[in-house]
Write a structure and sequence with these properties.
- The complex is a heterodimer.
- Chain A is an alpha+beta fold.
- Chain A has 3 domains: about 190 residues, no CATH class; about 190 residues, no CATH class; about 190 residues, no CATH class.
- Helices cover about 50% and strands about 15% of the residues of chain A.
- In chain A, strand 21 and strand 22 form a beta hairpin.
- Chain A is elongated, with a radius of gyration of 34 Å.
- Chain A starts with a helix and ends with a helix.
- Chain B has a single domain, classed as P-loop containing nucleotide triphosphate hydrolases (Rossmann fold, 3-Layer(aba) Sandwich).
- Chain B is built from 10 helices and 10 strands.
- In chain B, helix 2 packs across helix 5, helix 6 crosses helix 7 and helix 6 packs parallel to helix 8.
- The radius of gyration of chain B is 18 Å and the shape is globular.
- The chains are: A alpha+beta, B alpha/beta.
- Chains A and B meet through helix 1, helix 8 and helix 11 of A and helix 5 and helix 6 of B.
Chain lengths: ~775, ~290
C-alpha cells in the first residue's frame, strides 16, 4: 500500500512539474530562510554558555541614583568591591576583575603595533572563565606584576612563528611585560573579548592609578557564587555593605549606588548597551522567520487545495472502489509529507551552501555551529510536521469527505474553498507588501542618518589617536609641525572625537547643591574653528587670556536643562569653580539614537594630556596631505606607528548594525515576495488549466487578448489590493516603533506605501498576465477540440 | 474473444476460491444470517428491497423530485436494465442502490440489512463487500497503469501482495489485456478502457455489479463486447443492474424497468434469470 502511494505521489509530482516546482522551491526557500534565522537566533542565545561554572558566575552592576535623574546603569566600577565582597560574604567564593579596554602600543624587538584589546585582569580570570589554554599555567600566569597572557592572533602578529612564552613585550615604549601564557582567541560567542591580558597586580604599582573605592571607574568585577547560594539573597544584603564602603560618603552629593548581580548567561541579551537593539532584531528576525514560513506554508496549502478539485475525480473513483476516508487521508498526507521532505532536503543543501555568505551578511561567523544539531533538527521536525499536517491535512480532510458521486462529476470544490484560498493569498501578500514597506522605511531612515547635518563639520576631518604618555606629551609640537603642512587647514587636540558619544562626569552647577552628570569633552582653543561649531552666546577660548584656562563652554541643551537663560558668567564646580564663557549651538556629538545631552567643553584634559589630534584636511588632495602628515609623524615619533581615521567613516560605522539589519531585511522581503509570487503563479496556472475551455469559448465569441488577461488578473489583483490595505497599517505600526529607537528620525512618508503598493501590484500583475498571455494567445480550436 | 472467455470462465469456476480473507472478514457483519444461506443456495434470494424510496432537492420552498415512491425488489442472479428518458432519475436510483447516494426517504434493505439506518462507514463497508461499479466515462485513475487500476480495489480490501498479484494476473488474462497492463489509460481506446473498468469492478468478486451507461461512450461493436461480458458474469451468478438508453443492451438482461419522472412506469421480465441462481464458487458467500 505504501509503495502504491509513493508511486502515485511521485507520478503526480512528475506529471505536474510547475506545481511541484513551485511547491518544493517555495517551501525550501522558505525553509532556508527559517533555518538561517534559527541559526542566527541560536547563535545569539549561545553567548557565554560554554563556561563550566557559568551558572554560578555573575557580573556586578552598579545603579547610580541621583536626586535629579533616573538610575544610571554601569558595570564599570572601582577595584575594591570584588575583594571586599569576598571577605564579607561567604557565598562569594571568588571574584575576578578585568579593566576596560586600554589601547596601547605593544612592541617586541623591531615590531611595534597599536593594540586595542588590552585589559588588566586578575589571576583568577582564567580559573573562573574557561578560555582554552595553549601554553602556560592558567592558575598562576597573571600572578606576578608585569606579566601578560596573549591571545593567539596577537601572538602571531607580534612574534610570527616564534614561541612567545617567556619573551618580553614593551608597552607604550615604557613598561616591560613577560609573556607567561598563551590562549586561543576568545570564541565569537563570548561577551568577553581580548587580545592581551596584563596582570592586575601591575596596577597596584602605578601610583597614578586610583585603586580605592572613590575613583578609577575602569574595572568590571565578576563573582563566583557558591553552589546553591541565591544571588537574590546576596543582593538583599548588599545595601548595608554599599553604605559602609561608599554610600555614606556620597550622601552629601545626593548620590547613592546600588549594587546588583547580572547572571553571566544573560549579559549578552539583557545587560549590554546594545542589548535592547539586539533583542529588537532577534524579535524582528524571529517574526520574519515565522511570517516567511507562513507564506511558504500558505503556498503549499493553497496549491494543494486548488489542485484538490483536480483530484476530486480520482478520490471519487477510489471511494467507489472501496477506499475508506482514512486511506484517503493517509494518501494525501503522505504526498504532502513527501513534498515537505524533498523541500527540506533541498533547503538543507541550500543552507549549507549559503552559510558563509549569510555569516558575512549578519556580521557573525558561524564556524562553531553545525546546521545539524539537536535544536535545529527538533525545530525543523516541528516545521515538517506542522507544514505537512496543514498542507496535507486540509485537502485530505476536505476531499476525503466529498460524496463519491459529486467528486466524480468533477468535484466542485465550491465557492467556500475558493474563499479560503483567497484569504490565504491576502495573508501572503499582506506580509510581503508589509515587509517591502518596512524595508523602504529602514532604508529611508538610514539615508536620513547618513545625510542629516550633525551640527558640525565631519567631512575632511582626520583623527589621529595619541596612544601612550610618550606620544601624548609631544602633542603640542606635533600639532605645530602638522599645521605647517600644505593641505592641513586646521588642527585641534581633544580627548574624544565627537559623533560617537562622549564621556560623562559629575558637576555641581551654580545654584545647585548636588552633582549632576554632564557630557564632557576636553579640547584646545582651535576646536570650535576646526569643527565649524557656532556660538549662540559669549565667546570661545582665547589663548591670549590666561584666566581662560579653567573656563567652560556649554551647549544649549545644558542651558535648557538648568533653565539658564543667560549662562555666560555662571559657574560650574568640579574640584574648583569654572566660569562659563560661552554657549555653543547644539550639535550631535552622539549617534542619532540619542537626543542631544548637556555638554561641557573644557580646556583642561585629564592629567594634562589629550588623547587625539584632529586635523582638517583639504579633501581635494587628501592623499598627498596624509602622506606628508605620516612623514612628519615618523620624524617626530619614530618609535610609534602612524594611524589615522576619517571622522565621517567612524560616525557612519555606528549605523553598521542598522545597515546590516536593513540588508537582511531587504533580502528577506525580496524572498518573501518571490515565494508569494510563486504561489500566485501556481494558482493562476491552475485557474487557467481549469478554464482553458472557457477561454476557448470566449475567444470564439471574439474576446481580445487583453480582455482574457483581465479575466484572470482582475480578481487576483483585487485580492492583492485588499492585502495592501491589511499589510500596510501593520507595517506602519511596527516601523513607528522601530523609529522610536532613534531620537532623530525621518518619520514615515506616505510615498513609501505608495511605492511598496505599486511594486507589489506590478509584480503580481506581471506574474498573472504573463501566464495568462499564453492561453489568451493560443488557438481556441485547440482548447475546444478535446472534451 | 468469446472462446477465450469461456475457457477462462471454466477456470474461474473450477479454480480455487478467490475470495479473500480480508474481504470476508470485513464484510462478515453484513452477511446474511447463516440460516438463510441455504435459502440463497436453493432459490433466488431477495437481494435488494426498496420501499417508497424518494429523492428530492430543495429548490427554495419547493421540492424538486428526482425519485418518487419507488418500490423495487431485485433477486440475486437477476440482470436488470433500468431504462427511461434523460432526467428520469435512472442514475440516481443506481447510485442509491450502490450506496453512493442517500435517498431522502424510504427504506432500503440489502440482504435484509436496513441500509437506510446505517451510517456512512457501515454503508461504505457494505458497498465494499458486495459491489462493483462501472461508469459510462470509465473513470480510470489517470496516474495509474492498467495493472495498478485493476489492483486498487484489492489494496482497499487489504489483500496480501502475492494473492493480489495472482488475482490481477488472472483477470488480465481473462479479459485478454495482459499486453496492456503497463499502459496508462490515455494510451487505450475507449473500448479497452471500459474493459479495464469492468475488470476493476469485478476483481473483488462482487455479488452485485452496477453499471451506469457502460457502453454510452463506445461504438456498437465495443458495446456488444462489454454486454457479452456482462452476460457471462451474470451467468456465473453475479447480479447486475445497468442503466442504459439502448434497447439492444437491454436485450442482454433478464428484466427491464422503465423509469419516467422518478416513477417506475414499466417492470417487465423478459427472460428467466439463467439457471445458475445459486452462488457460484469463488464468489463471496460468507463463511
Amino acid at each position: 500500500m505504501f509503495r502504491h502511494y509513493l508511486t502515485i505521489a511521485i507520478r503526480n509530482l512528475l506529471k505536474d512539474k510547475l506545481y511541484s516546482w513551485i511547491n518544493v522551491l517555495g517551501l525550501s526557500v522558505g525553509l532556508v530562510l527559517v533555518m538561517m534565522i534559527l541559526l542566527y537566533l541560536q547563535f545569539e542565545y549561545s553567548y557565554d554558555d560554554w563556561h563550566t561554572q557559568g551558572e554560578q558566575l555573575y557580573r556586578v552592576n552598579i545603579r547610580t541614583h541621583r536626586a535629579d535623574a533616573q538610575g544610571e546603569e554601569s558595570h564599570v566600577f572601582t577595584p575594591p568591591i570584588g575583594p571586599d565582597l569576598q571577605v564579607e560574604f561567604p557565598e562569594v567564593e571568588a571574584y575576578t576583575r578585568i579593566s576596560t579596554e586600554q589601547p596601547a602600543f605593544l612592541s617586541h624587538q623591531e615590531e611595534a603595533m597599536q593594540v586595542d584589546g588590552i585589559h588588566y585582569a586578575d589571576t583568577s580570570f582564567f580559573t573562573l572563565f574557561d578560555f582554552s589554554w595553549l601554553a602556560g599555567d592558567a592558575r598562576t600566569a597573571l600572578a606576578r606584576p608585569n606579566t601578560m597572557v596573549l591571545a593567539m592572533p596577537l601572538a602571531r602578529r607580534l612574534f610570527g612563528e616564534e614561541d612567545p612564552m617567556g619573551k618580553s613585550v614593551v608597552l607604550d615604549n615604557q613598561q616591560q611585560y613577560e609573556v607567561t601564557g598563551l590562549v586561543a582567541a576568545p570564541p565569537v560567542h563570548s561577551h568577553l573579548q581580548f587580545e592581551a591580558l596584563l596582570s592586575f597586580s601591575t596596577l597596584y604599582q602605578d601610583s597614578e592609578r586610583f585603586m580605592g573605592w572613590n575613583g578609577g571607574n575602569q574595572y568590571i568585577t565578576y563573582l563566583l557564587l557558591a553552589e546553591n547560594s541565591s544571588p537574590a539573597q546576596l543582593e538583599e544584603k548588599l545595601p548595608p555593605f554599599m553604605w559602609r564602603h561608599i554610600n555614606e560618603g556620597l550622601k552629601p552629593y545626593g548620590v547613592q549606588l546600588e549594587a546588583r548581580l547580572q547572571p553571566l548567561r544573560d549579559i549578552h541579551l539583557w545587560f549590554n548597551p546594545d542589548s535592547p537593539a539586539l533583542r529588537t532584531r532577534l524579535l524582528a528576525f524571529g517574526a520574519i522567520g515565522l511570517l516567511i514560513l507562513l507564506i511558504a506554508g500558505v503556498n503549499f496549502v493553497n496549491l494543494a487545495t486548488a489542485r484538490a478539485s483536480w483530484r476530486a475525480k480520482e478520490v471519487g473513483v477510489r471511494k467507489v472502489l472501496g477506499a475508506s476516508r482514512g486511506a484517503l487521508i493517509r494518501q494525501f498526507m503522505g504526498e504532502a509529507f513527501l513534498l515537505v521532505l524533498i523541500a527540506m532536503g533541498l533547503g538543507f543543501l541550500l543552507t549549507e551552501a549559503l552559510a558563509p555568505v549569510y555569516g558575512k551578511l549578519i556580521g557573525k561567523a558561524f564556524y562553531p555551529f553545525a546546521i545539524f544539531n539537536a535544536y535545529t533538527v527538533l525545530a525543523l521536525l516541528g516545521v515538517l510536521i506542522l507544514v505537512g499536517a496543514l498542507a496535507g491535512g486540509y485537502p485530505a480532510l476536505y476531499i476525503s469527505r466529498l460524496k463519491p458521486v459529486t467528486a466524480i462529476k468533477g468535484g466542485s470544490t465550491g465557492k467556500k474553498k475558493q474563499g479560503l484560498r483567497n484569504a490565504l493569498l491576502v495573508v501572503q501578500f499582506a506580509i510581503s507588501a508589509g515587509l517591502i514597506a518596512c524595508t523602504l522605511v529602514i532604508y529611508q531612515q538610514l539615508q536620513y542618518t547618513r545625510h542629516k547635518g550633525l551640527g558640525f563639520e565631519q567631512q575632511g576631518i582626520v583623527v589621529l589617536p595619541l596612544v601612550g604618555k610618550a606620544v601624548q606629551s609631544k602633542q603640542a609640537a606635533l600639532k605645530q609641525e602638522l599645521l605647517a603642512l600644505q593641505g592641513v587647514e586646521g588642527a585641534t587636540a581633544l580627548s574624544e572625537a565627537p559623533g560617537q558619544g562622549l564621556a560623562r562626569n559629575g558637576y555641581i552647577p551654580e545654584g545647585h547643591k548636588e552633582s549632576m552628570l554632564f557630557h564632557v569633552i576636553d579640547v584646545d582653543e582651535n576646536f570650535i574653528d576646526v569643527f565649524g561649531l557656532e556660538l549662540s552666546a559669549g565667546r570661545s577660548f582665547d589663548p591670549a587670556r590666561p584666566a581662560d584656562a579653567p573656563a567652560f563652554l556649554v551647549n544649549e541643551a545644558l542651558a535648557r536643562q538648568l533653565h539658564w537663560s543667560n549662562p555666560v558668567g555662571k559657574t560650574i564646580t568640579r574640584n574648583e569653580e569654572h566660569p562659563v564663557i560661552g554657549v555653543v549651538k547644539d550639535f550631535h556629538f552622539a549617534s542619532l539614537h540619542h537626543p542631544i545631552g548637556p555638554l561641557i567643553i573644557t580646556r583642561q584634559p585629564w592629567n594634562g594630556r589629550y588623547h587625539r589630534l584632529a586635523l582638517k584636511v583639504r579633501t581635494s588632495d587628501w592623499k598627498r596631505t596624509m602622506d606628508a602628515v605620516r612623514g612628519r609623524w615618523e620624524t617626530i615619533l619614530p618609535q610609534t606607528p602612524f594611524d589615522y581615521g576619517f571622522l565621517d567613516e567612524a560616525i557612519g560605522q555606528q549605523y553598521e548594525s542598522e545597515r546590516r539589519f536593513q540588508e537582511a531585511f531587504l533580502y528577506f522581503s525580496i524572498l518573501s515576495i518571490l515565494i508569494a509570487l510563486l504561489g500566485l503563479l501556481g494558482l493562476v496556472a491552475l485557474a487557467i488549466q481549469q478554464r482553458t475551455k472557457e477561454v476557448g469559448i470566449r475567444k470564439v465569441m471574439g474576446a481580445s487578448v487583453g480582455s482574457i488577461i483581465a479575466l484572470f488578473s482582475k480578481g487576483l489583483l483585487q485580492l492583492v489590493g485588499i492585502a495592501l490595505a491589511a499589510g500596510f497599517p501593520l507595517a506602519w505600526y511596527f516601523m513607528r516603533r522601530w523609529l522610536q529607537g532613534f531620537a532623530y528620525n525621518n518619520g514615515i512618508d506616505w510615498w513609501v506605501f505608495l511605492l511598496a503598493g505599486a511594486l507589489t501590484l506590478l509584480v503580481a500583475f506581471l506574474t498573472v498576465a504573463l501566464r495568462a498571455m499564453g492561453v489568451a494567445r493560443s488557438n481556441p480550436v485547440k482548447a475546444l477540440r478535446y472534451e | 474473444m468469446k472462446k477465450k472467455l469461456e475457457i477462462e470462465n471454466s477456470l474461474v469456476i473450477s479454480g480455487r476460491p478467490l475470495a479473500t480473507q480480508g474481504c470476508c472478514n470485513q464484510s462478515r457483519l453484513y452477511q446474511p444470517p447463516s440460516g438463510e444461506q441455504a435459502a440463497v443456495a436453493t432459490k433466488n434470494k431477495n437481494m435488494i428491497q426498496l420501499r417508497d424510496i424518494e429523492r428530492y432537492y430543495r429548490n427554495g420552498f419547493r421540492k424538486a423530485w428526482i425519485l418518487n415512491q419507488v418500490n423495487l425488489d431485485v433477486k440475486e442472479g437477476e440482470f436488470v436494465t433500468i431504462m427511461g428518458p434523460s432526467g428520469a432519475g435512472k442514475s440516481t436510483l443506481l447510485n442509491i442502490i450502490g450506496m453512493l447516494e442517500e435517498p431522502s426517504g424510504g427504506e432500503y434493505h440489502f440482504f435484509d440489512e436496513p441500509v437506510h439506518k446505517f451510517n456512512e462507514r457501515k454503508r461504505s463497508d457494505l458497498h465494499k463487500a458486495y459491489m462493483g461499479f462501472v461508469f459510462q466515462a470509465y473513470h480510470l485513475i489517470d496516474d495509474l497503469t492498467v495493472y495498478e487500476n485493476i489492483e486498487t480495489p484489492l489494496l482497499y480490501r487489504n489483500v496480501k501482495g502475492k494473492e493480489r498479484k495472482s488475482m490481477v494476473a488472472e483477470i488480465l488474462d481473462r479479459f485478454n489485456i495482459v499486453a496492456k497492463k503497463d499502459l496508462f489509460p490515455e494510451q487505450l481506446s475507449g473500448g479497452q478502457q471500459q474493459l479495464v473498468g469492468v475488470a476493476r469492478a469485478v476483481i473483488s468478486k462482487p455479488r452485485l455489479l452496477l453499471a451506469d451507461e457502460p457502453t454510452g461512450n463506445l461504438h456498437t461493436k465495443q458495446g456488444d463486447q462489454i454486454m457479452e461480458l456482462f452476460k457471462e458474469l451474470n451467468d456465473e451468478g453475479v447480479t447486475i443492474i445497468q442503466v442504459t438508453h439502448s434497447e439492444r443492451n437491454a436485450s442482454f438482461g433478464t428484466r427491464i424497468i422503465e423509469l419516467v419522472d422518478g416513477n417506475i412506469r414499466r417492470d417487465e421480465q423478459i427472460r428467466e434469470p439463467s439457471g445458475q441462481a445459486d452462488v457460484p464458487k469463488g464468489m463471496p458467500n460468507g463463511k
